[in-house]
Specification:
With 352 residues, the protein is an alpha+beta fold. It has twelve helices and twelve strands.
Length: 352
């Protein structure tokens, strides 16, 4: 009991620090509508969230994180630029035998209305200052760099969309990439093969089946992705260096993947902003694949603070940009956003 009291006090202290930096405190409901979460993240989230049923709300989930509830509250208020701070419990189902808790505390900061790399440097510097007493290793990444690389591949829109959809599932992504790099076996759409062969059963109509057969035929006819593009993408995914060296490596890769050049220009501006915010970018780690196994709303700059003594644990703090999430919930005019959370229970005991 005392441990949880101490952790709650630490979460409140962190929240107060975010408020002191200019954010306003916000509270969100613990019970969240499941339909929005399922629409955004798909059925995969059922394996990570506690699902229940409310007679009024319908299917609901215990809050798996704070970001979506805060976004919804911000959009409902019709505001543009704003900053919010919060603390409280989130809930995640764990695998059988796991020793990780299913309920844990978070304290966080969300910033709406700022799109440039300056705010990305600001939020990282804010977290770095709060976490300075702890023995943590910061790491940065950029999901926008990966999506730009996929969007620049010389292949069909359907294949690019499939790769983007599975960007957060590294094994599935690699399997798709390998499949798309090989000539497909010849297939026949056989669009009329089932005409007059019985009634429609189930949810799919004949038109649905025709459309699916046509998509398969188009995929079979598509030329394979060039091996040079595959190699360049593999090289990008392998980049793990200090920030300046990573940028240099990525510039070399951009010779074969020119579509990533605008993302690299933004990365360079971010490094400049981080340096101006007092961050030593000469030692700051950049990992191209960082953030690929978290919730799928990050679409740009991502960061984390890891415990070197416990590589088995999730980050003690993490965050990133999620402009695509605000657009999905609020339309094209929704403001850009970036945020992050600190998990007090994962901070090293020595400095707590």
């Amino acid at each position: 009991m005392a441990d949880k009291v101490a952790l709650r006090a630490e979460a409140e202290r962190l929240k107060a620090a975010f408020v002191a930096s200019g954010a306003e405190p916000v509270e969100t409901d613990v019970l969240q509508p499941a339909d929005l979460l399922l629409d955004l993240y798909g059925e995969d989230i059922r394996g990570r969230a506690f699902v229940t049923h409310d007679p009024v709300m319908g299917e609901a989930m215990l809050r798996p994180d704070f970001t979506m509830p805060v976004v919804l509250a911000h959009l409902a208020a019709g505001r543009g630029a704003a900053r919010y701070a919060y603390s409280g419990e989130v809930f995640r189902r764990q695998d059988a035998g796991s020793r990780r808790p299913a309920e844990f505390l978070q304290a966080g900061l969300e910033i709406f209305g700022a799109a440039g790399p300056e705010v990305e440097a600001e939020i990282f510097a804010t977290f770095a200052a709060l976490l300075a007493p702890y023995d943590l290793a910061p790491v940065t990444g950029d999901i926008g760099l990966l999506t730009a690389a996929v969007d620049g591949l010389d292949t069909t829109p359907a294949r690019r969309a499939a790769l983007r959809r599975h960007l957060w599932r590294p094994r599935r992504f690699k399997a798709l990439l390998e499949r798309f790099s090989r000539p497909a076996a010849s297939r026949s759409a056989a669009g009329t093969a089932f005409e007059g062969r019985g009634p429609e059963i189930g949810l799919r109509t004949r038109d649905d089946v025709r459309a699916r057969l046509a998509a398969l035929a188009a995929d079979a006819a598509a030329p394979p992705i060039a091996r040079s593009d595959i190699n360049a993408l593999d090289a990008l995914l392998a980049v793990r260096e200090t920030a300046p060296n990573a940028l240099s490596q990525l510039r070399n890769i951009a010779v074969d993947l020119p579509a990533i050049t605008p993302a690299l220009d933004r990365l360079a501006r971010r490094h400049e902003s981080l340096a101006m915010a007092g961050i030593d970018i000469e030692t700051l780690e950049f990992e191209a694949t960082y953030g690929r196994t978290t919730l799928e709303y990050y679409d740009g700059f991502v960061f984390g603070f890891l415990r070197p003594d416990r590589p088995d644990l999730p980050p003690a703090a993490s965050g990133g940009r999620y402009d695509a999430l605000t657009r999905a919930l609020g339309g094209a005019e929704a403001p850009p956003a970036i945020g992050g959370v600190i998990r007090p229970a994962l901070l090293p005991e020595a400095a707590r």
